[in-house]
C-alpha cells in the first residue's frame, strides 16, 4: 500500500510539473499593448491579426540577454531553413532606444515589437515566461502549435515547423 501511495504521489507531482500544452493565448496576452519600432501602440491581438494565415515563430528576447544574443546564430539558421515562416520578435527590453539599438547591433531580421512592462508584466505572466529566449510557434489557423522551447535548434521546434510546412 505504501508503494502505491508513493507511486501516485510521484505521478501527480510529475503531472503538476509538466509544461502546459496551451493552444491559445490568454485574453490578457491578446489585449496587452506593445510598441512598434516607430513607437506606436499595438495590441498583441492586432499583431497576430497582421500575420493571419502564416506560420509564426515567436521569439521573446531582449538585447541585454546574453543567452538571447548567443542564440541569434541559431535563429538565423532557422530563418534560412524555414524562410516561409514569419519571425515575430517580442522584446523585453527596458527602453525603446536599447531595443532598437539591439535590433541593429545583432542584425535581427523579422517583425519587431516590444512589451512595455518587462518579463514579469502582463504579457510575460500570461505566457508563463520564466526564461528568455523563449520560442513559440503559431500555426496558420492562429493556434499555438508549440508553447515553449528555449533553444532555436530544439528538436521540438524543428519538428513543429516541419509539420506545418
TrEMBL record:
Keywords: Signal. InterPro entries: Redoxin (IPR013740), Thioredoxin-like_sf (IPR036249), Thioredoxin_domain (IPR013766), Thioredoxin_ResA/DsbE_sf (IPR050553). Residues 24-165 form the Thioredoxin domain. Residues 1-18 form the signal peptide. It comes from the Bacteria. This is TlpA family protein disulfide reductase. The lineage of its organism: Bacteria, Pseudomonadati, Bacteroidota, Flavobacteriia, Flavobacteriales.
Amino acid at each position: 500500500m505504501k508503494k502505491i501511495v508513493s507511486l501516485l504521489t510521484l505521478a501527480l507531482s510529475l503531472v503538476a510539473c509538466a509544461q502546459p500544452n496551451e493552444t491559445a493565448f490568454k485574453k490578457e496576452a491578446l489585449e496587452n499593448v506593445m510598441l512598434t519600432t516607430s513607437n506606436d501602440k499595438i495590441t498583441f491581438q492586432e499583431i497576430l491579426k497582421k500575420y493571419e494565415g502564416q506560420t509564426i515563430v515567436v521569439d521573446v528576447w531582449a538585447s541585454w540577454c546574453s543567452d538571447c544574443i548567443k542564440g541569434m546564430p541559431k535563429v538565423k539558421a532557422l530563418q534560412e531553413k524555414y524562410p516561409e515562416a514569419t519571425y515575430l520578435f517580442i522584446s523585453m527590453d527596458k527602453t525603446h532606444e536599447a531595443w532598437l539599438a539591439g535590433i541593429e547591433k545583432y542584425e535581427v531580421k523579422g517583425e519587431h515589437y516590444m512589451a512595455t512592462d518587462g518579463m514579469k508584466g502582463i504579457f510575460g505572466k500570461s505566457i508563463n515566461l520564466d526564461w528568455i529566449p523563449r520560442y513559440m510557434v503559431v500555426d496558420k489557423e492562429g493556434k499555438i502549435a508549440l508553447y515553449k522551447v528555449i533553444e532555436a535548434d530544439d528538436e521540438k521546434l524543428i519538428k513543429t515547423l516541419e509539420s506545418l510546412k
